[in-house]
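Example 281.
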Amino acid sequence: MRKPDNSLRGRLVRRYTRLLTADRHTATDADLRRSALIIAPHQDDETLGCGGTILRKRAAGADVWVVFMTDGRQSHGHLMPATELAGLRRAEAVAACQVLGVAQERVFFLDYPDGSLGAHCPAATEQVAALLSKHNPAEVYLPYRAEPTADHQATHEIGRAALAQVGTARTVLEYPVWYWHHWPWVSLRQSDKRESWLVLRHTVQALAGVRLVRNFRYGVPVAGVREQKLAALQEHRTQMTPFLPDANWLTLHDVANGEFLDCLLQDYELFYRCEYRPQGH
Ligand SMILES: [Zn+2]
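Predicted structure in complex with zinc ion:
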């Protein structure tokens, strides 16, 4: 992270980083070899939240499948026709997964409309449950339960409902993406006033970082695969570059002036890990 400054924010980030990397459970070789289904709301969440972990698992020989819940049509829907953008994002996701070591036949698209996944929970649950039954992954990766965006919350709930429907014990790893968008990880004062308010709201919800330190007690070291993770992320060209020559085409680099992306490219990927056990067992 680029902040060796002595401000309160700089000092807190360093302190939190120490806490988040010491006294945690670190993935073992046996953990890395376990098969996994990654459930991602949008095309880029798989890499942002779990890209390094996927790379390490594939290097360890684990089976990994990725399922995308929505078609991603909203990210720049005001600048490009929805079907065109959805098509681009699907191709980008296939390319990113390829870089992560996941072949196209192991990547699934459920194509629910970006932004309103919550209106399709029963049907989406059936589809995720079918994937769980068919592939029987030992681990399931879901967005963190307190993610601040609606599709991420809906994905969490759908994943949980699918686990319950299938009823097999598995390890659940909840990953943060937009949850990082709070002080001190990003500055309170942003150039866009609306974003400043959003950061403030997220900061209150996240107890100024305390909740993250308390809950994310499992980490996968990913410094050794950082370049590959970044290469996978670059495949999401509509999200990483001004895809059209239009000043309104914002990218992940623009979120909190780059501070948000820094959070997702740290030396560890952190997870809230819990065991799912069917009731009565
Ligand atoms: Zn997302």
